[in-house]
């Protein structure tokens, strides 16, 4: 007999966790709708996922010079990420240690010191408090500036991708990414990559997990949601999106790797650079890559997309963060990356294809956001929890993994939900942590 | 200001009102016919700078970066049965104001600045979106008509508060 459950609103944290463990069943291919919109789940997620794991904060190429800085969000907290005089990158909480005012309000810039607008305390970009107006006069000899440095944030990077964490005990980034690094090498390690311009930013009334779910393994939706693209002749056919592999690794990471591709999707001129940066096996995968779409847990999605624009094939590479703002709201922050040594015309066309397909005006992106919004709206409120509404994640459960040249668990076409099950399994692990 | 320039200013005001009406009436073909073959249609990403340093938008990243061919693609796409972002179409209302004619060479070219406030409502969603910004337009005279040959739309938000730009600015 089914036991009557309480309103989630009235549950203690322990009861909510028990409820999650009973209802979130990724291994059986079932995830309840309420996890996409419930405020209490969102609150727990903030503590157990976003405060515990590595969160993407940007790309090293965004601050190439000494004293360059950028303002970023780390799990809801503003941080200053800056390149020091010794070229190391360090990050600090954007809060004056005297009275808590934000030190910096610009998206990015170049300066060695940050002056607080409240009382004029000033800090070097290595975090040290170096100046207090009228210090001797008002504090005498008593103020110990060395105890008042900015709160440093733990950061690590992999192939230019910068991650931060508030968790002092977080595992090394290298371990967290694990087997998935093999694929990230193809994404951002194949050549010297640089971010062009500022990231695109826009707000969607959607839970962040829908974006992660979509990129981690959902190539199935492209036939329908992106049917217009095939109609316009930008991709071979609506069913091309099935061809390739679905791959996931520990820690909830996953990707869909579209292959084969009769055309080389990257700048031909850089073949030697690609070969120098990749293993033979990775280069082989790159050479026949049609697209690569995936998600680094929890919410950094990435994409290599190869389409025909104005009669010419071109690829573009991007990463995007589904930054949670609320249970039903997120900011999408999307960075465009390109091979630094690519010909200028290739770079220009690659950016053009990114803006056309995966920016707020992108003709792929815009149809996704419409879907994300409506899914979130339908998951809200008491009814979906009360009636036990669930999503079906059973696709491909009957299938066995295949041998693949890269690491991780691979399936030999992309239409499976193994990656989403892997995502939710790790999500539930962290929620229990 | 000369009477000639006043009349021209009025003419461009009427052009922009007509454009707004066509878009709000979802007559995209009618709207597209107002474009010149040499069109550059851009919306740069706006950024927060430290002080009053200008421009405070990027010269190398855009939300729209179209020529006539790509704009045509967008218009054609909206006519497929799969353009979900606008099925059913948003209800939009474009308020155009502060129209100011700058450079003007009769029956040749003109540059016009204006403000745009765009209201967008979708389906039964009670949230509405407002997009505000400045248009820096350039016109070319062709076959007895003024055609839009360049639009630079400077949006007033650094994080755009609408689910997508499946609409035109």
From TrEMBL, chain A:
<dbReference type="Pfam" id="PF00848">
    <property type="entry name" value="Ring_hydroxyl_A"/>
</dbReference>
<dbReference type="InterPro" id="IPR015879">
    <property type="entry name" value="Ring_hydroxy_dOase_asu_C_dom"/>
</dbReference>
<protein>
    <submittedName>
        <fullName>Phenylpropionate dioxygenase-like ring-hydroxylating dioxygenase large terminal subunit</fullName>
    </submittedName>
</protein>
<dbReference type="InterPro" id="IPR036922">
    <property type="entry name" value="Rieske_2Fe-2S_sf"/>
</dbReference>
<keyword id="KW-0001">2Fe-2S</keyword>
<keyword id="KW-0560">Oxidoreductase</keyword>
<comment type="similarity">
    <text>Belongs to the bacterial ring-hydroxylating dioxygenase alpha subunit family.</text>
</comment>
<keyword id="KW-0411">Iron-sulfur</keyword>
<feature type="domain" description="Rieske">
    <location>
        <begin position="54"/>
        <end position="164"/>
    </location>
</feature>
<dbReference type="InterPro" id="IPR015881">
    <property type="entry name" value="ARHD_Rieske_2Fe_2S"/>
</dbReference>
<keyword id="KW-0520">NAD</keyword>
<dbReference type="InterPro" id="IPR017941">
    <property type="entry name" value="Rieske_2Fe-2S"/>
</dbReference>
<keyword id="KW-0058">Aromatic hydrocarbons catabolism</keyword>
<dbReference type="InterPro" id="IPR043266">
    <property type="entry name" value="RHO_NdoB-like_C"/>
</dbReference>
<keyword id="KW-0223">Dioxygenase</keyword>
<keyword id="KW-0408">Iron</keyword>
<dbReference type="Pfam" id="PF00355">
    <property type="entry name" value="Rieske"/>
</dbReference>
<keyword id="KW-0479">Metal-binding</keyword>
<dbReference type="InterPro" id="IPR001663">
    <property type="entry name" value="Rng_hydr_dOase-A"/>
</dbReference>
From TrEMBL, chain B:
<keyword id="KW-0560">Oxidoreductase</keyword>
<comment type="similarity">
    <text>Belongs to the bacterial ring-hydroxylating dioxygenase beta subunit family.</text>
</comment>
<dbReference type="InterPro" id="IPR032710">
    <property type="entry name" value="NTF2-like_dom_sf"/>
</dbReference>
<dbReference type="GO" id="GO:0051213">
    <property type="term" value="F:dioxygenase activity"/>
</dbReference>
<dbReference type="InterPro" id="IPR000391">
    <property type="entry name" value="Rng_hydr_dOase-bsu"/>
</dbReference>
<protein>
    <submittedName>
        <fullName>3-phenylpropionate/cinnamic acid dioxygenase small subunit</fullName>
    </submittedName>
</protein>
<dbReference type="Pfam" id="PF00866">
    <property type="entry name" value="Ring_hydroxyl_B"/>
</dbReference>
<keyword id="KW-0223">Dioxygenase</keyword>
């Amino acid at each position: 007999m089914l036991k009557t459950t309480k309103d989630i609103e009235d549950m203690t944290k322990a009861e909510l966790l028990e409820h999650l463990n009973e209802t979130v069943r990724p291994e059986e291919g079932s995830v309840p709708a309420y996890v996409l919109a419930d405020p209490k789940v969102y609150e727990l997620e903030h503590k157990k996922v976003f405060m515990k794991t590595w969160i993407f904060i940007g790309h090293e190429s965004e601050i190439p010079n000494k004293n360059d800085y950028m303002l970023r969000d780390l799990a809801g907290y503003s941080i200053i990420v800056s390149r020091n005089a010794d070229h190391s990158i360090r990050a600090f909480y954007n809060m004056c240690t005297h009275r808590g005012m934000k030190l910096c309000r610009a998206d990015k810039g170049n300066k060695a010191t940050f002056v607080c607008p409240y009382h004029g305390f000033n800090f070097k970009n290595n975090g040290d408090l170096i100046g207090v107006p009228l210090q001797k006069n008002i504090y005498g000899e008593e103020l110990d500036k060395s105890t008042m440095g900015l709160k440093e944030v733990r950061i690590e990077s992999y192939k230019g991708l910068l991650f931060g964490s508030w968790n002092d005990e977080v595992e090394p980034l290298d371990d967290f990414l694990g087997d998935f690094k093999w694929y990230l090498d193809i994404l951002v390690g194949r050549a010297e990559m640089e971010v062009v311009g500022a990231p695109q930013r826009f707000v969607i009334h959607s839970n962040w997990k829908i974006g992660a779910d979509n990129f981690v393994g959902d190539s199935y939706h492209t036939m329908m949601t992106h049917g217009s693209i095939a109609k316009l002749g930008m991709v071979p056919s609506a069913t091309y999106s099935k061809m390739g592999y679905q791959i996931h690794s520990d820690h909830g990471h996953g990707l869909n790797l579209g292959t084969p591709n009769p055309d080389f999707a990257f700048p031909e001129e850089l073949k030697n650079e690609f070969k120098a940066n990749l293993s033979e096996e990775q280069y082989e995968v790159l050479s026949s890559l049609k697209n690569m779409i995936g998600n680094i847990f929890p919410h950094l999605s990435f994409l290599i997309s190869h389409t025909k624009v104005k009669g010419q094939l071109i690829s573009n590479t991007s990463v995007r963060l589904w930054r949670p703002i609320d249970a039903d709201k997120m900011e999408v922050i999307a960075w465009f990356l390109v091979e630094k040594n690519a010909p200028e015309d290739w770079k220009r066309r690659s950016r053009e294809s990114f803006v056309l397909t995966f920016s707020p005006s992108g003709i792929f992106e815009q149809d996704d956001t419409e879907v994300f919004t409506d899914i979130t709206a339908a998951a809200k409120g008491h009814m979906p929890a009360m009636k036990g509404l669930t999503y079906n994640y059973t696709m491909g459960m009957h299938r066995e993994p295949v041998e693949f040249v890269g690491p991780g668990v691979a399936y030999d076409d992309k239409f499976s939900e193994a990656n989403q099950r892997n995502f939710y399994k790790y999500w539930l692990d962290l929620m229990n942590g | 200001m000369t009477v000639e320039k006043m009349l021209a200013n009025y003419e461009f005001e009427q052009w922009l009102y007509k454009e707004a009406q066509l878009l709000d009436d979802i007559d995209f073909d009618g709207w597209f016919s107002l474009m010149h073959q040499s069109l550059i249609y851009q919306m740069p990403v706006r950024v927060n700078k430290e002080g009053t340093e200008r421009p405070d938008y990027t010269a190398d990243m855009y939300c729209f970066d179209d020529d006539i061919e790509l704009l045509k693609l967008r218009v054609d796409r909206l006519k497929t049965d799969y353009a979900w972002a606008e099925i059913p179409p948003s209800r939009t209302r474009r308020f155009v104001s502060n129209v100011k004619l700058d450079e003007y060479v009769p029956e040749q070219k003109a540059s016009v600045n204006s403000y745009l406030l765009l209201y967008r409502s979708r389906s039964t969603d009670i949230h509405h979106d407002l997009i505000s910004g400045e248009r820096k337009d350039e016109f070319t005279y062709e076959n007895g008509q003024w055609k839009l040959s360049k639009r630079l739309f400077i949006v007033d938000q650094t994080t755009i508060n609408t689910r997508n730009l499946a609409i035109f600015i």
